[in-house]
Each structure stands twice: as structure tokens, then as C-alpha cells.
């Protein structure tokens, strides 16, 4: 045997061991980035960026620096940011296998650990199915008329002539002109309307002290969801926990009354939602926060885009012509509101109500050549794909025509409601309450922005910092 062959036999195992060791080293490589200070990590800088409406830039700066996979720490836990359509697909299609829908510590403490976003396996299927019974199209069809009545009542009580402001202008020493403006702050009014709808459908809860208290506490509750989990007085996390406890007391009483009515045959189980406290609160929270954001910014965009506004006005006036005085909207009417829903989807593309979401890593896995360890959390965000100029050309321009052919948008690029088996179960409910609301807003009012450059903030839901002040002009409805 030649010396070469002897050397080959001797060295080959060494090469194999070195190769396997190198491969093992690559597979065990954590993503680039830093976990920062324990517990705090990058939470403060992330939340600060959201409140300054620079969350998109905050994400893009990380992606440009580290790539589509990077490590950081958010809300007290080591986290991996995965961005892009491929990452969205991976996250949405691996639930229960590699990933679980466990939320960060602040969300679990405030929402409760038995809510839908925490449940797994058969428990998740059972509760999601029960909530789906309440939110399925067959049930929602029966509730279109109820939503219609709530919207009309709210507009009559809060939008028609109750926000008039008298302004005196001294043009000269001798001449004074008095102007009457109908000034309205859209965001808080829209929030009240959406909360009225969800309270009426779930519990038949009429306006009063309980409802006023609940909407105030849900504001604190929401602020606490994305917060640094430091339970000290006056922190957002602490205020969120306190608000959650107060909400639970009120909702527990409402659930008890609902169950009693069902036992007496005064309420139908088919119209009921799961009477589990944590999930009742989740439905109340999600049922008004996302729609509030969507409708507020839809009005904002329409005020800036006369072409889109005129197309939607025409669509709703044509529907209104088919209705006799006082007749309620129905399911078929909603199906005709195609331009409106395209504008709504474009609104959610540019300003998604939910910035992103979290998953818990169930076991070690490799992604993009990096190790993602068991016990860490994965964070995904909507903006990296919503603002991808390869998919959405001129991405900052409001253009509802992008959704004329929705099949032209590649999968996992437009994800305002998430995706996969964890897609928001209330997305159809959001569509219905939004379409009914915009029908009466656009057929009964015209509006003009008083501050066209109203600053946007996220806290954590997006909202105009000044609440979107508009000059409202009631239309003369024949």
C-alpha cells in the first residue's frame, strides 16, 4: 500500500470529525444581535419607536444591520425577529409543531392564561370552535340588523350637532364675524361606537356607568399589554393589571347574568359566545380596538383622496337608493360594498391595527443557518412585507386598486389578521361592523381634516395623537 493511501486512511477520519464539528458549530450558531440588559433588553427603544410612529424604521434598521433573522430581548424574554414572507409562512404553518402561540409575560398576566391566544391542541380547537360559533357568517348575518341599530343610535346621540364650537373672529375694530363649526375628535368617538357594538352583541349591555367604566379600563388594559413587566406603582404594566382585575369583576357579573338567562330560556345557546372569563375579555378587547383603528384611519385617508372618497360615496348612495326610510342594512347590502372593503384593506396595509405578534419556541430548530433555542420567543411584524416595494409599488401611496385582483398578491405578504390556524377569528366581524359603520358615516356626513398632518402614535394600537380632529358637515338626506 502506498504512503499516500496510508495517509489518506489515517487522515480521512480526522477530516470527517473536523467537518462534522464545523457543521455542528454552524448549526449551533445563534442569530446576530444583542439581548441587551436583562428583563429590559430592547423593550424601551422598541416601545419608544412605536409611540413615535417609527416602528417600521426601527425594524428596517435591524434588518439592514443584521438581516432577516436577529436576536434581541422584548418584554422580559430572549426573542428572535423573523421577517419577510418566507418567515411569515414558516411561523403561521408551524403552530403546535415547532412553535406555540404563547404570549409575552405582560400579555399573559393581563389577558389571563386561559384565553384563546394561550391555549394549545384540543383545548385551542374546542374554544376556537365555540368562539367561531358566535363569529361564523351564519351568526353574523343575524346580527347585521343589531349592528345597524347601534350605529344609527350612536350617530344620532354623538355626531349630530353635539360638538358645535362657536368661534368669533374680530376682522376689524368694528366688525365681528361669528362662525359655527361642528368639530369632532374621531378616534374617541369611533372607539365608543365600536365598544357599544361589542357590548350590545355580547351582553346586551346598554349605555351607563358599567360601560363607561369598562371603556376607560380597557384603555389602561391595552396600554399594559406591550410593556416592560415591572410591577411597580404607576407603571403601565401595574396599571394594566389593576384595570384587568376591575374588568374581570364586571365581566364576571355579566357572564353570570348571561348564564342565568340561558337557564331560564331567555337566551339561545346558539347565539352565545364561550362564557369563559378570559375569552370573553379577549373578544371584547379585539372586537373594538382593531375596528377603531381601521375606521379612524380610513376616514383619514378618504379625506386626503377625493377619487377614492367619491367612488365609495357613489357605492353607498346606490345602496341607500334601494332602501325605504328606516330599513336596516342586510347581508346582501354588505356584499355590494366592494370598493369600501378594498379601501379598508389598503388602510390596514399601510397602518395595520396589529403591529406584529409572538410565538413560543417549543424545541430547538434551525432557521436561515441559525439556531433558535427552545424557550425563546419569535416575533413577526406586518410592515416588512406590507411595505415591500417589490410587491406593493409606491408602497406609501394610498391605492385601494391594489386589491382589485387579490390573487396577484403573493401569499403571506398581506397579513393584517395574522395567518394559519391562528388567524384572527374575528376578521369577518371586523369587516361587518366596519362596513355598516362607514355606510352611515359616508351617507350622512362630509368631513374635512383640521390638521391634515396629524401625528400618528402606537400605544400599542395605532391612533392619531390628537384624536383626528375634523370639521364635520351633516348631509341633507332626502
From TrEMBL:
CDD domains in the record: CYP90-like (cd11043)
GO molecular function per UniProt: beta-amyrin 28-monooxygenase activity; heme binding; iron ion binding; oxidoreductase activity, acting on paired donors, with incorporation or reduction of molecular oxygen, NAD(P)H as one donor, and incorporation of one atom of oxygen
Cofactor: heme
Pfam families: p450
TM region(s), chain numbering: 167-187
Primary residence: membrane
Membrane topology: Single-pass membrane protein
Gene Ontology cellular component terms for the protein in this record: membrane
Entry keywords, A to Z: Heme, Iron, Membrane, Metal-binding, Monooxygenase, Oxidoreductase, Signal, Transmembrane, Transmembrane helix
Cellular compartments annotated: Membrane
Residue positions binding heme: 424
PANTHER family for the chain: CYTOCHROME P450, CYTOCHROME P450 26
Name of this chain's protein: Beta-amyrin 28-monooxygenase
Source organism per UniProt: Vitis rotundifolia
Amino acid at each position: 500500500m502506498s504512503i499516500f493511501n496510508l495517509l489518506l486512511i489515517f487522515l480521512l477520519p480526522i477530516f470527517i470529525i473536523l467537518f462534522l464539528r464545523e457543521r455542528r458549530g454552524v448549526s449551533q450558531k445563534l442569530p446576530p444581535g444583542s439581548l441587551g440588559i436583562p428583563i429590559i433588553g430592547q423593550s424601551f427603544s422598541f416601545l419608544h419607536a412605536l409611540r413615535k410612529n417609527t416602528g417600521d424604521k426601527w425594524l428596517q434598521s435591524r434588518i439592514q444591520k443584521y438581516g432577516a433573522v436577529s436576536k434581541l430581548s422584548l418584554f422580559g424574554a430572549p426573542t428572535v425577529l423573523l421577517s419577510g414572507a418566507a418567515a411569515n409562512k414558516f411561523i403561521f404553518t408551524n403552530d403546535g409543531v415547532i412553535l406555540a402561540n404563547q404570549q409575552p409575560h405582560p400579555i399573559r398576566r393581563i389577558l389571563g392564561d386561559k384565553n384563546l391566544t394561550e391555549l394549545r391542541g384540543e383545548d385551542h380547537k374546542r374554544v376556537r370552535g365555540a368562539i367561531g360559533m358566535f363569529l361564523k357568517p351564519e351568526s353574523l348575518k343575524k346580527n347585521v340588523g343589531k349592528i345597524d341599530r347601534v350605529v344609527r343610535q350612536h350617530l344620532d346621540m354623538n355626531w349630530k350637532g353635539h360638538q358645535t364650537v362657536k368661534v368669533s373672529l374680530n376682522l376689524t375694530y368694528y366688525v365681528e364675524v361669528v362662525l359655527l363649526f361642528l368639530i369632532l375628535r374621531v378616534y374617541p368617538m369611533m372607539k365608543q361606537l365600536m365598544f357599544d357594538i361589542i357590548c350590545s352583541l355580547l351582553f346586551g349591555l346598554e349605555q351607563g356607568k358599567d360601560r363607561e367604566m369598562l371603556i376607560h379600563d380597557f384603555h389602561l388594559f391595552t396600554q399594559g399589554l406591550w410593556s416592560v413587566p415591572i410591577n411597580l406603582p404607576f407603571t403601565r404594566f401595574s396599571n394594566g393589571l389593576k384595570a384587568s382585575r376591575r374588568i374581570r369583576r364586571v365581566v364576571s357579573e355579566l357572564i353570570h347574568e348571561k348564564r342565568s338567562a340561558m337557564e331560564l330560556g331567555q337566551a339561545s345557546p346558539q347565539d352565545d359566545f364561550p362564557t369563559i372569563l378570559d375569552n370573553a375579555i379577549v373578544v371584547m378587547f379585539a372586537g373594538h380596538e382593531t375596528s377603531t383603528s381601521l375606521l379612524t384611519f380610513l376616514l383619514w385617508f378618504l379625506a386626503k383622496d377625493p377619487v377614492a372618497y367619491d367612488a365609495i360615496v357613489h357605492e353607498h348612495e346606490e345602496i341607500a337608493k334601494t332602501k325605504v326610510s328606516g330599513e336596516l342594512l342586510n347581508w346582501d347590502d354588505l356584499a355590494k360594498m366592494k370598493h369600501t372593503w378594498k379601501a379598508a384593506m389598503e388602510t390596514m396595509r399601510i397602518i395595520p391595527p396589529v403591529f406584529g405578534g409572538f410565538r413560543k419556541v417549543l424545541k430547538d430548530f434551525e432557521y436561515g443557518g441559525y439556531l433558535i433555542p427552545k424557550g425563546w420567543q419569535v416575533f413577526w411584524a406586518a410592515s416588512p412585507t406590507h411595505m415591500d416595494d417589490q410587491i406593493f409599488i409606491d408602497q406609501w401611496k394610498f391605492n385601494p386598486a391594489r386589491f382589485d385582483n387579490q390573487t396577484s398578491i403573493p401569499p403571506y405578504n398581506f397579513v393584517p389578521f395574522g395567518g394559519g390556524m391562528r388567524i384572527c377569528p374575528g376578521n369577518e366581524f371586523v369587516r361587518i361592523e366596519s362596513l355598516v359603520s362607514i355606510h352611515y358615516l359616508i351617507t350622512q356626513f362630509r368631513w374635512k381634516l383640521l390638521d391634515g398632518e396629524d401625528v400618528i402614535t402606537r400605544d400599542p394600537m395605532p391612533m392619531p395623537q390628537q384624536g383626528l380632529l375634523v370639521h364635520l358637515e351633516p348631509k341633507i338626506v332626502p
